Amino acid sequence: MPTQPKENENKQRRSEHKAEAKQKAKKETRKEGKKPRRRILPIWLRIIIVVLLSAVALLVGLMVGYGVIGNGNPTDALDWSTWQHIWDIVNKTD
């Protein structure tokens, strides 16, 4: 009689293991049956778009900061002479 509970436990474990194996097999067949996803924009194109949008946002931010907040002409933020002057101030070049 004492072996019967152990046998029941073993049977239960085996049936649980079989159920897990079946679920795993179903998941694998689902993955195999799926078609590969076709992306509208390839990853390399997404990276280029993000870099370009970041550059545009940087330029717009420079113009807003220099023109609106700094009370200057917004297009002056894009002049080389402006940045040369800022570089000279930062490096204390006379």
From TrEMBL:
Q: Name one GO cellular component term.
A: DNA-directed RNA polymerase complex
Q: Where are the transmembrane segments?
A: 43-69
Pfam families documented for this protein: EpuA
Task: Name the InterPro entries for this protein.
Answer: RNApol_su_b/EpuA (IPR024596)
Q: Where is the composition biased (Basic and acidic residues)?
A: 1-23
Q: Signal peptide: which range, if any?
A: none
- Looking at the keywords, is Transcription present? yes
Cite the record's Basic residues compositional bias ranges: 24-36
Which UniProt keyword terms apply here? DNA-directed RNA polymerase, Membrane, Transcription, Transmembrane, Transmembrane helix
Q: What is this protein called?
A: DNA-directed RNA polymerase subunit beta
Organism for this UniProt entry: Halobacillus salinarum
Organismal lineage = Bacteria, Bacillati, Bacillota, Bacilli, Bacillales
